[in-house]
Amino acid sequence: MLIFIKLVLGHLIGDFVLQPKKWVLHKQANKITSKYLYLHVLLHFALYMLLLWNLSLWTIAFVVAITHLAIDILKLYANEMVKKKSIPFFIDQILHILVIYCCAFYTDLYTHTLSLFENLDWYLVTAIVFVTYPASIIMGQVLEGMSNQIETDHKSLHNAGKYIGIIERLFVLIFIVIGRWEVIGLLIAAKSVFRFNDLKERNNRKLTEYILIGTLVSFGMAILAGLLYIS
Description:
It comes from Maribacter stanieri. The chain is mostly helical.
């Protein structure tokens, strides 16, 4: 496990801390011919070796670095075919972590992976999944009749309310799991403060009631999921 953690740390430092914007732009413009692409991979190899601090593990560092080069090249060309640039970015990061995982546990990869799944807390996984998109869809159905009476604010970010709800429910679930109920009260208070000025300026009773009901339903579902998990 320590090898895996060290390789992940090296990846994070190399990809995010020690990669200037200049390198990123140069790679995007020149792709496989960019000198910074190879300098970036060389830096990763050096970081892996430094963090592992064991010359006998150089093959692991080398394989991870070379694979990093191949994945980065694929990402550079995939960027041109996809409008939403976040998709290649996240796929790129997932592939890097998968390669690191496979290299770190290559001696007992199947056994270790099987052990991870066997020891996974499926109750918690189910609760986490529930408070994300399923809870959002349920809220949409519950509040559908009310939302038709609310004027749409075109200045709002697209789907901002949905993502805020998902994040707040995840926080509530986490706080319940770790037994910090008092923090949930602080979270509700903080959200109320942020909403107060917005609602005060609009002076819209229907909107206030709609947001209040939505907030209570959202927190209620997260609390229910948390209680079912810890019971």
